[in-house]
Amino acid sequence: MSEILRLDAVSRHFGGLQALRGVTLGINKGEVLGLIGPNGAGKTTLVNTICGVTPANSGAVTFMGRDITRIKTYQAARLGLSRTFQIVQPFAEFTVLDNVAAAALFSQPGESLKSAREEARAHVAFVGLEAQAGKSAAALTLAMRKRLELAKALAMKPKLLFLDEVNAGLNSAEVERATRLIHQLAADGITVVMIEHLMKVVLNVCTRIAVLHNGQLIADGAPRAVISNPAVVDAYLGQQYAKRNARGD
Amino acid sequence: MTRVNLALLVLIGCVAALPWFGGAYALRLGTIACMYAILALSWNVVGGFAGYPSFATAAFFGFGAYATGVLLSDGLPLSLAIAATLTASLLLAVLLGVVLLRLRGHYFAIASLSLVEVLRELVNNATDLTGGGMGLNIPLASGSGILADATFFFFAMWGLLLATALMVIAVSSSKLGFGLACIRQNETAASMVGLNCTLYKSIAFGLSAGFVGAAGGLYAAWVHYIDPSDVFDILYSVKPIVMALMGGLGSPLGVVCGAFLYLGLEEVVWRNYIQIHSGVLGVLIVMLLLLLPHGLISLRPGMLRRKPKHV
Amino acid sequence: MLVAQVLVNALVLGCLYACIAIGFSLVWGVLNVINLIHGSFIVLGAYLAWGLYQSLAIPPWYALLVAAPLFFVFGYLLQRSLLNRVIAAPVLVTLTLTFGLDLILNNAMIYFFKADYRKLSLHPSMGSVSLFDVVVPVDRLIATASALALTGLLYLVLRRLRVGRAIVAVRLDRDAAVLMGVDVKSIYAIAFGFGAALAGCAGVLMALIFPISPLTSSTYLGKAFVVCVLGGLGSVSGALAGGLLLALVEGVGSTLIGPAHATTLSFALLIVFLIARPQGLLGRKGFE
Question: Is C257 part of the contact surface with chain B (CB cutoff 8 Å)?
Fold first, then answer.
C-alpha cells in the first residue's frame, strides 16, 4: 500500500499549551483510519494542522509526495484534502444545493457555476438530501446539516477526507445511515480519517486505529490490537469497556 | 439578467431623460444623484456583497479628485485623466486591500477610516503637488456656457453610473459574486472549500474603489476647485453606507433607490433647515437604523426581496 | 535639556491622552461598541467647565464633581433607550448609529454655543514650574494629576467594587457572566454611563489646557481611537500605555520632522498596529 499522507514529528502549541507533541504517523491510500482519544487529546488540532488552519510549529507534513507543512487552507482544499467540521459551518443563506455547488466550484479549476450546480445535485442525492435541495441551509436539522457537511466535502473530489465526529448528536438510525455512507466512500477509493467517539462505529468501519493522548500518539495499528492495548485502555477506553470487549459483546 | 437588475438599468435609463425636464438646478441635482448612486453601488460591492464594513470610500474619492486634478493641471484631456484615475484607484485599493482585508469587524472598519485621515494629511503636506491646505484650482475641461457645462457633466456622471451598474451586475452574476457571498456568510468555510479569500476580497475592494475614484475625478473637474478637507470628508464614507442601509443592503437596485431618496431628503433639509441640517441627518440615521434595519427593500413585495440563493 | 523636555511633555500629555481614551476603551471593551459620540461628550464636558467658571466662578476641579454624575446619567439613559436595541447588531449598524447620534449632538452644540473657539483662562493665571531646565505649566500639571487620579479611580472601581467586578466579568466572557447571575443589560448601561462620565470629566480637564469648540470633537475621538489600538482595549493599564506611547511618538516625531506631520504619524502608527499587533501593547488577542 502506498502512503498518501505522512506526518513527521509534528508539533503545535498555542501559547503555553502544547497541543501536539512530535506526532509521527503515516496514512496509507485507501485506508479508513480511526483517530480516537479523550477530549483535548489534539485530534481536531491534528486535522487543523494538516489542513493549514493552524500550521505546525515544527515537523513536516507530506501529502502525496508534496511538502504541505506551510500550506494555506484553500490550497490544501484544492490539492484534495477535505474535511467536515465538528461544529457544522454551512453558508446559512444559501440553499443546500448552492452550499454544495460552492464546494464543487472553488475546489476544482475550470468549473462554472452552472456545471458546479449540476455536479452538486449528485452529491446532494448521495447523502439523501434531494428533498431539501432548494431549502436554505439554516432551515435544516442537525442531522441534515451533518449530511450537508459531508456532501460539501465530497463535492471537493477529495483524495483524503477527514470526518470530525460526524456522528455526534445523531440517533442510532442516523448513525447507521452515516456508517453506510462511509463504507460507500471507502469502496469508492477515498482515504478516510475519522475522529470518532463511538467505538461501535470505529470497529465496524475502520481498517486501522491511531490513538492520541495529550498530543502524543500512544498507539497505532489494527483495531483489535489497539483496543486491547493497556495504555489505550488506561488513557481512554476504561476497564469496563475492556472487560466487555474481552467477553466479546 | 434577473428582473431586479433589469429594473435597475431601466431606472438608470430614466434618469438620463432629466435634461429635458429641468434647467441648471435640476441638472446639478441630477449630477449629484448619479454621483451618490455610484458611491453607494461601489460600496455595496465590498460592504454588501463581501460583508466588509468599509469606511474608506472618502479616501478613494479624495484620491480620485486629486489624481484627476493634478493630471488635468498637467494638460491631460479629461477622458484620459478619468481613465487613468480609475485604474490608479483600483490598483491602490488592491494593494491596500491585501494588507487591510486581513482585519475583520471593528478593526477593519477603523483601519479603513484611518485611511481617510492618512491620505488627507499626506495630500495636505504635499503642497508642491497638490497645493496643500490652500486647495487646487482645476482648469476648465469642457466647452463654454453654464448650461452646456452642466449638461456635459451630468451626462459624464450618468455614463459613469451606467458603467458602475454594469460592473456591479456583472459581479453579482459571476463566480466572483458567488465567492463574495460565501465570504460574507462564512469566511472560514469559504477558504475550506478552496476559495482564495484574500484574492477575492482584494478584487472586490479594488472594484469598489475604482469607480469611486473616477467619480471623485469628475467631481473635481466639475467644481474646478478642491481642498483636502472638502474631498477627504468622512461624510463621503458614511453617506453611501446610509444610502445602502436605507435601500437594502446587498441589493443594487435598493442601494440606488436609497441613494436617490437620500439626496432628495438632503436637498429638502438643506433648503429649509440649513443650520441644523447635519442634526437632521443624524436623526434620519438613528430612526432608519432603529425602525427599518433592513432598508426599504424589505417593504417591497416578495419578488424583489433577496432570496436565499445567489442573485 | 531638549530630550528631557520632550520626555516630560510626553509624560504629561500621555496621561491626558489616557484620560481621554479610558472611557472610550471601557465602552469598546465591554459593550463591543465603538462610541463615536465620545469626542462630543468630551467637548460638552469642556463647555460645562467653561460655563461653570464663567457664570459661577466654579473652578474646574469642582466642576468635575458636577460633570461626573450628570454625564453618567446621560450616558446611562442613552444606552438604555437607544443603544441597547442594536447591541447585538453588526459593526456597521452600531458605528453608523453612534455616528448619527454624534451628528445630532455636535450640531446641537454648534447651534447653541457657536463654533468659535473659547478658552478657559484661570484668574489669576497659575504660571509654570521649572526643574533642571524643564518647564511645565502648572495648569497642565494639575490636569495631569487629576487625569491620573481619575484613571486610578476607575482602576479601583474595576478591582474593588462589585459593580466593577461585574463589568470586568462581562468584558471577559459575556455568556459566563450571565450564568453567574450578572444582569448584563444593566451592566452595559452602567459601563456606558461610566464611559460618558469619564469623557465628561476628561473634557473638564481639557478645558484647562486646550481651546474649546465643537470642531475639536473629532480630534479627541481620533486620539481615543489611536490610544485604544496602541494600548489594548478595556483596561486602565492599556489606556496608560497607549497614551504614553502616542504622546512619545508625537513628541519625538514633531521634534524630528515637524508638528504638521504629528497627526499623520499617529494614524499611520494606528494602521501599523492594527496589522501587526491588533490587540495593542497590553491587550488580549481575539478581541474584535
Answer: no
> What is the CATH architecture of A3-80+159-247?
3-Layer(aba) Sandwich (3.40)
Neighbours of chain C (3+ CB pairs under 8 A): B
User: Looking at residue B39, what is its pLDDT?
Assistant: 97
Dihedral sign computed on CA atoms, order A199, A205, A209, A210: negative
How far are the Cα atoms of A63, A88, A194, B29 from residue A3, in angstroms, in the given order?
9, 29, 17, 69
Q: For chain A, how big is the Rg over CA atoms in Å?
A: 18
Q: What angle do CA A141, A145, A147 make, to 5 degrees?
A: 120
Percent of chain C with pLDDT over 90: 22
Q: Taking CB atoms and an 8 Å limit, are A113 and B192 in contact across chains?
A: no
Torsion angles phi and psi, residue A161, rounded to 5: -115, 125
Confidence of residue B308 (pLDDT cuts 50, 70, 90): very low
Give pLDDT, residue B231: 92
Domain ranges of chain B: 21-233
The pLDDT confidence band at residue B307, using thresholds 50, 70 and 90, is: very low
CA distance B272 to C50: 33
Listed in sequence order, the residues at least 6 apart from C99 whose beta carbon sits closer than 8 Å to its beta carbon are B238, B282, B285, C36
Quick check: B50 contacting A, CB < 8 Å?
no
Best CATH choice for the domain C2-120+134-276 from the list 3.40.50, 1.10.10, 1.20.140, 1.10.3470: 1.10.3470
Q: Between B and C, how many residue pairs show a Cβ–Cβ distance under 8 A?
A: 116
Half-sphere exposure of A150 (CA within 13 A, CB side): 29
Q: Which chains touch B (3 or more CB pairs under 8 A)?
A: A, C
Q: Count Cβ atoms within 10 A of the Cβ of residue A90 and give its class: 0-12 exposed, 13-18 middle, 19 or more buried.
A: buried
Q: Do C107 and B279 touch (CB under 8 A)?
A: yes
Domain ranges of chain C: 2-120+134-276
CB-based contact, C25 to chain B, within 8 Å: no
pLDDT in tens, A215-231: 888 888 888 888 888 88
pTM: 0.85
Question: For residues A153 and A161, is the Cβ–Cβ distance under 8 A?
Answer: yes
Domain with CATH 3.40.50.300 in chain A: 3-80+159-247
